[in-house]
Every structure is written in C-alpha cells, then in structure tokens.
Amino acid sequence: MIANTPSIRRSTHRVVVRWKDHAVQVGGGAPVVVQSMTNTDTADALNTALQIKALYLAGSEVVRITVNNDAAAQAVPYIREQLDKMKIPVPIVGDFHYNGHLLLQKYPDCAKALSKYRINPGNVGSSRSRDDNFAAMIAMAIEYDKPVRIGVNWGSLDQGLLARMMDDNGRRAEPWPAEQLMYEALIESALSSAHKAVELGLPADRIVLSCKVSQVQDLIAVYRELSKRSEFPLHLGLTEAGMGTKGIVASTAAMAVLLQEGIGDTIRVSLTPEPGGDRTKEVVVAQEILQSLGLRAFTPQVIACPGCGRTTSTVFQELADQIQTYLRDQMPIWKNTYAGVETLKVAVMGCVVNGPGESKHADIGISLPGTGEAPSAPVFLDGQRSVTLKGDNIAQEFQKIVQRYVEQRYGASRQGTQE
C-alpha cells in the first residue's frame, strides 16, 4: 500500500485557549489551529476590534495583538468589550516584549481580558532582571488562569544564554558550526524557559512553544529537533516571511514539510501586506495550506485548469474566479447551516481534453468550450452528466446549480444529523 496521508501527529499536552464559554484546543490531538495577528495600533481600540472581527470571520481561530505600552494595555479591555458586543468570541493573545511584567501588573483588567500571553524569553529584561521579569509574567498567568506561548525568535535570542553556549562550544575538541549553535540556542531557550515556568507553578498543559526563524531549512531543522525533546504543543510560523508570492511560498514550503511529518499544532502565516492589502490574506493562506494537505477543510475547493493554447478564451478563468469568490463569501452563512459543505469540490475546466474527466471526479463540475469547440458546457453532478448550459448566462446558471446542490445535499445531511 502506498501511503497518501500525513504522518501521525506527535503526542502533546492539550492546551485550551478560551474566552468565556468559547474554547480553542491546541495540541492533544486537536485539529491544527489557524492564528493571525493584527497590525493596527492597539491603542486604537475600535479599529483593532474591527480588524480582529475581520480576521475571525475569515477563519482565524485565535488572534494576537501587540501590547507594547500603557495606552495599548489600557485599550485591551475595551477591545474585548467591543468584540463581545459584536458577538465575536475569538480569544485574543497579548504579545509582550521588554515591559510585559510591568503592564500585566499595572493593568489587571488587561491581564484578565486577554486569553493568553506570549512571552519572548530573549527580551523580558536585561540579564540581571530577566529571571525576575519572566517569573512575574508567569505569576500573572497563574493568577488569572491563562496559558502562555513561550516564543523564541532568532532575532532576539537570550544573549546571556548564547554567550555561555559560545564559550562551551569553544572548549569542544570539534566546535559546532555557527548554524548548529544557533539551532541549539533557540531550542535550549524555549525548553529551559518552559521548564522554569513549570517550576514556578504553571501547569505544563498551559504552555505552547515556538522557535521562529526566517529561513525555510532553518525552521524545518529546529522544529524537527524541538519536537523530539518535549511534549509541549508547537506553534509554527516563518517569521518575516516576506511579501506576496515570496512570503506565501516560503511559509508553505516550511510548514508543509513539518505538518506532513506530524509536527505542529497551530500555525500563522506571517505575510507582509502589500500597500492597502487585506490583512485577512494570511488567514486564507494558512487555511489553504492545511486544506491542501488534507489536515482540515475550511471552504469548498475549486479545481481549475491553468489554460493552454486550447483555451484562448478567458471564460473559464472568469468563472473559476467568480465561483471561488462566491463559495468563500457564502461560508460564514453555510458553515452554520450546511454540515460538511466545506468538503465540497467544484471543477471549472476549459476544454474537452481533461474537462469532462475532472468534472466527473468533482462533486460538481463544468466543462467549458475551448477554442473552436461547440459553444456548450456540460455540467456534471456526482459524476453524472446533468445538464448542458449554453448562451451568455452560463456563469449565473452554474452558480444557481451550485446553490441548489448545496441545499439538497448538505441541507439533507444537516437534517439527518439533527434527527
């Protein structure tokens, strides 16, 4: 038998990130969670809440916000209040650097409104105060019953730890290359901080780890090793991935390898938005990574041919785009009405070579005429030819067919599960 599924997921603790009755499970066999992060000024509570809402509606199951100063910390309870008014239950994570211990102690309402704290052990204070500041943040997590993500970043490694490791490395008969030393420093920082948190009284099942780097092979190497050394859930993400196709390809290349090997419990695609770009794009890419690997299903998938000399018409391209946009726009409504609709497969093909065959393999398929072909478009439902569309309204008619199919197939499925 030829295997065609990802490796068995690694066994981890189960961490629950919640807001009131809404709980998101990370690790412990739960589906891989999609996360995102706002890029608004957190002190602007209304715009931050609106962006969180947009990210949640796009499919982000946890949203992180920057809490970097007094104004941001003071705004957090109001952000949570606005989300509650809009009936957006998504847990929000506070991203702390340098002064998190001060902000959490000074603004208890902020500490309570957040569902999770992100701590970078490399910048919780100077070498003299780092342990005390870290302990203060862990104490707040314990007091308010919050999980934490201990997130190490190679751009802000604990310099004291790195210096000690460099000294130890220099005394080796065969010193490690700088790259290997960096890998070990990232892993050691994450694990030693996690163990310290447990010693301070934070249960192990409230800790998630991450070791962020910005190169694909580095991320794969670090997480492969980190996954061997602990049972903490792991957050995957290529930091500073970049803009546009570069960021998408790099993030996908790194995370797909690890996810295929059963490594990773929550992911974020750190895309640099294009000027005026939509922040929710990173959520869509994260979902598509998981859905392409067969790990989760979020929205119906559209299969479309790339086009060739047989398809000089752009009709199939336009229809594929319209249908894909339509399906994604409908999902906020459909997911609460039609159980299983996210697994729907739709084929929009451009000529007779592969068109009918691909259409038969999909749940719903349409084979549009290519160059020089008869101006007709057969539609297939569950592998059987159903109707042939002609004329100028093929797109509108096909969309109606998709809507009817969803209502008949998944509406019945929903009713059956309720009975």
TrEMBL record:
InterPro entries: Dihydropteroate_synth-like_sf, IspG_bac, IspG_bac-typ, IspG_C, IspG_TIM, NO2/SO3_Rdtase_4Fe4S_sf. Residues 301-403 form the IspG C-terminal domain. Transmembrane segments: none annotated. Its cofactor is [4Fe-4S] cluster. Its EC number is 1.17.7.3. GO terms for molecular function: 4-hydroxy-3-methylbut-2-en-1-yl diphosphate synthase activity (ferredoxin). Binds 1 [4Fe-4S] cluster. Converts 2C-methyl-D-erythritol 2,4-cyclodiphosphate (ME-2,4cPP) into 1-hydroxy-2-methyl-2-(E)-butenyl 4-diphosphate. Belongs to the IspG family. This is 4-hydroxy-3-methylbut-2-en-1-yl diphosphate synthase (flavodoxin). It comes from Limnobacter humi. The lineage of its organism: Bacteria, Pseudomonadati, Pseudomonadota, Betaproteobacteria, Burkholderiales.
